[in-house]
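Dock flavin-adenine dinucleotide; give full complex structure.
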Amino acid sequence: MPDPNAQRYDAIVVGGGPAGVSAAITMAREGLEVILIERGRFAGAKNFFGGVMYTRALAEVLPDFQARKPPWERPVTEQGYWMLAPGSVVRFMHASQAYRQDPADAYTVLRARFDPWFAQQAVDLGALVVPKTTVVALIEDADGRVIGVRTDRPAGEVFAPIVILAEGVNNLLTQRHGLAKADLPPRFVALSVKQYIGLPAKEVSARFGLAGTQEGLAIDIFGDATLGLPGTAFLYTDKAGISIGVGLLLEEFVKHGLPPYAVLERFKRHPIVAPYLEGGEALEYGAHLIPEQGYDRMPELVADGVLVAGDAAGMVDALHREGTNLAMLAGKLAGETAVMAHRAGDFSARSLGHYRRALEQSFVLKDLKQYRRMTDFLDRSPHFMGTYSGLVNDAALRYFTAHDRPKREMEREIVGLLRDRRGFFGVAQDLYQLVRGMRG
Amino acid sequence: MHTIVAIKQVPDTSNVRINPETGTLIREGVPAIINPYDVHAVELAVRLKERFGGRVTAITMGPAAAAEALVECVEQGVDRGILISDRKFAAADTLATSYVLGSAIEALNAEDPVDLLLFGLQAIDGDTAQVGPGVATRLGLPLISYALGLESFDPVARRAVVRRKAERGVERLETRLPALLTVEKEVAEVARAPLPNLIRAARYQPELWTAEAPLRFDPDHIGIKGSPTIVGRAYTPPPKTPGERLRVAEQGLAETVSQALAAILSAGVVESLGPVPVTPQQEVSHG
Amino acid sequence: MAEPGAGPKIWVFVEQDGGRAHPVSWELLGAATGLAEQLAGGVVEAVLLGHAVQAIVPEAFAYGADRVYCSDDPLLAHYRNLPYAIGVSQLVQAHQPEIFLVGATHLGRDLASSIATRVRTGLTADCTELSIDPQLKILAATRPTFGGNLMATILCRQRRPQMATVRPRVLPLPERQPGRVGELVRAELGLREADMPVRLLGFEPAAGGADIEYADVIVAGGRGVGGPEGFARLAELAEALGGVVGASRPVVDAGWIGYEHQVGQTGKTVRPKLYLAAGISGAVQHRVGMSGADFILAINRDPEAPIFQVADLGIVGDVAEVVPELIRQLRARTAGAQGGSHA
Ligand SMILES: Cc1cc2nc3c(=O)[nH]c(=O)nc-3n(C[C@H](O)[C@H](O)[C@H](O)COP(=O)(O)OP(=O)(O)OC[C@H]3O[C@@H](n4cnc5c(N)ncnc54)[C@H](O)[C@@H]3O)c2cc1C
Ligand SMILES: Cc1cc2nc3c(=O)[nH]c(=O)nc-3n(C[C@H](O)[C@H](O)[C@H](O)COP(=O)(O)OP(=O)(O)OC[C@H]3O[C@@H](n4cnc5c(N)ncnc54)[C@H](O)[C@@H]3O)c2cc1C
Ligand SMILES: Nc1ncnc2c1ncn2[C@@H]1O[C@H](COP(=O)(O)O)[C@@H](O)[C@H]1O
């Protein structure tokens, strides 16, 4: 029996990350009384990610976001890949005038700054943001419909006809409500460790050949950075610092007994990487999981009185290091669905099914569907990153140092390298799998 | 009943870093917290409110960011938060601080008579323990510093019995109310605040008092002008030249220990390796 | 030297409890003597309040006071803020000292700020160093701030007296000069019990009071000692060395040993002749409490532990191994020494 004095709202959002805040903004703007509950000291206190935020999704949530002065680090004006081998690198970078618009398509950000700003926008639009409080359970009525949440505080129950779960990758509530299977197996979750290294803004610009803080880089790095294991490393330029990290499937860390921080330290000492970081001061250090279960293993998104959005629902496109944008759009669609449900006075799973359909129309589920086989591919071809990165570097060395030999010979050698390392059949198989992974 | 708690926002000194080249404090990125003693003062005030009714006001003099600290007090159960903030208060020493807080408390007392004033024992950034006694003195109120707890509290008879930590033991003091207490952490264990408090705090905006409104503070008594002390020089303590390091792993246990004992003896810091020496305390007691 | 009484007065508050002076008062008299020498005609004067405290007066002379203002009154028998603050402030106003030093004890910190507020002057807390600024000829009071991360020298240019509190054991105890004499000035303060808002109902002396503050040898342990059993062994070592046991904060917080043993910023400042730090990392908050020791011996298995930065001698090794060996060798020595004296 709910306590008549209990706190009642139109909607409860669990989690103050991009998904939760987007949902809160969307509902508050439509006049719903929204309470967002966040366990951190403030929204974003403990959140972190690699560093690139995409503005198209943000514009969907907050069309006038630029006027609200988000705490951008740098716009991404150049991006691409480094294939790292021990002692060498092949860089594959793309700079374009298309990246130089205001607002830019993507910016680097630090979550400890961005998330509080984003949450403040929700507050300004009328949502209530309650920090330092963890939701420990969903409250259900006799028919199993969700009607509220219980928190870890005294007098800590809150009621609403709809709860949006945006609790991130550790989706305990989603699991406990039976929407997701138990914890993701280590094959389907990556562990990423990252450091934010402080350096004077001028120094960052100079080291990466940027004209100033109006230019920035986003680099994904393969090969030796992860000891050749399937995974990626990244290096992004912030305003006065560098975000650097490595991520591997949890399974790889376990299988090879690798301490995650040691992998990052090794990467930071790589002779190509180290000079960029020299003299910097490590200001932030952390580890975070990334759900990589793919489309086929996503949790249920809807049940009576509840919706799931963002990492909690496995909405990450690992290939393109996208997550916040999926989370924001999903949050917005969840918010819109809640508003519609209020209008219809119907919070049943059927009524809330609109959410799933809207997601299917959007890039969120389209992209996730397309790359549904990516994890499987990496899973089956663990040598992919390591072998090919090494190969490309060796090939490059031959190519660029073969000054006094017939070019044919050099080409044959490069092809030979490929055959020695993987065998033609292997290569053909890899390519097939890769294309399948990309096509969906 | 009405309790006023003075709180200060301080940098978390466990996170302070020093720029080794300039010897200056790097304040950037150091999280600001409520002075730990003050948190216990707030808790005591909230407990008393639960028992005797009434309300709790928290006041602080500090930069705009200190509003956060007042919001945290509301989370803990404080009813009203007042931020006294103005550039003109900058560089205040404890005399100027106690003038400002004392004047503000007088004004609040005129609105709603105060039964109890609570201060933290000391602020961890300055460690002076001077502001509480200073305010009590200005207001002509009984002061009990180093309060460990209330043995009894009677807002009607206007009396309280307080346990106070003195140099060599614990005093039991009876005081008339209103009184000012500076508190040790023992006065009240901080409980987890209930959710309705956090909900209230989420929208709470502390009142802002400047040097001119709603009170006009005497410009000669605030900020630099009102502060007799000034910082002449600040520097990081010079590092000492470290002594020799004996390694057990290299020299073996017995040899290392025997060398260390020989070094202690030859440094002349212990005369013999015998029984207990006489302390000066025991000496003067004869005089 | 100018005639006593003509030059600036350097005051020291003599703290007493039940007729026993707190040694910090003598440390301050030592400092005051040094300051007086740097100010032309400077005189050292002591202020003593209490009941039945006559015996302390000659001690004050012996430790360097040229004159003692003494108020002896049953009302002052136990320290209370208000009568003491009113009384001392009256004396300050009447005699206009230039500098006024008070011990940074519980009593002193309670009292000094009330006096400073009454006479509207500046007060610098918890100083670790006092000197006269050579140009300005005023007190330069240096103190740690920000948890010992920074030292600040504080000046009080205009108002008088220039007040400072100093922690016990920060300054050396001066030589006692038995038979040294000075002038005793009896002060009538006109205090009435009826005006006093606070009454002492009772007093419970601290149990087991380990007086680490004034110990010559301290064997201190930190988290590296491993647990309460480790502390039992430290106590043995302390006994063998004729000292007492100290501790870092985490082990006090963990309940391995009582708070009265804690050394550091939020514990006690100590100044022993020998400080043995076992399994203590040497965080700045700990170091501010013990770096004044004459000789520091650190035992730590981490050769990079910051404690080695302040240690006169370090042992890189396991506490669990080194401490028993120290005990063994010490016992062997004393046994040997005793044997020797018999022969
Ligand atoms: C190393 C790394 C690099 C990444 N790089 C990028 C990138 O460059 N670009 C990109 O777009 N994405 C990136 N991502 C992915 C992106 O960070 C996530 O997809 C995104 O943050 C998901 O948002 P969310 O709101 O669903 O979850 P989160 O951001 O994880 O937010 C969940 C929130 O819920 C709170 N919470 C959880 N449980 C409870 C509870 N029970 N009660 C109350 N509060 C609770 C948490 O404290 C947290 O604030 C990266 C991720 C990692 C780990
Ligand atoms: C505001 C504030 C006030 C503080 N006040 C104080 C204070 O008054 N006093 C105080 O002490 N601290 C104080 N601290 C805490 C201080 O910052 C440190 O955390 C504390 O001093 C560390 O205690 P420790 O050296 O015992 O423990 P640790 O830092 O954990 O160090 C243990 C050491 O033991 C060594 N060790 C471990 N095992 C062994 C072994 N078997 N043999 C040999 N060596 C071993 C380790 O190498 C390590 O160096 C304060 C902190 C703050 C923020
Ligand atoms: N600026 C301030 N605003 C409000 N209270 C303060 C301020 N400064 C000190 N205090 C109070 O006085 C106590 C002692 O501080 P301090 O004398 O600076 O060590 C603190 O614990 C606070 O309760």
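Observed: Residues B 6-8, 35, 37-38, 60-62, 94, 97, 101, 119-120, 122-123, 126-132 surround adenosine monophosphate (ligand 3) (CB under 6 Å).
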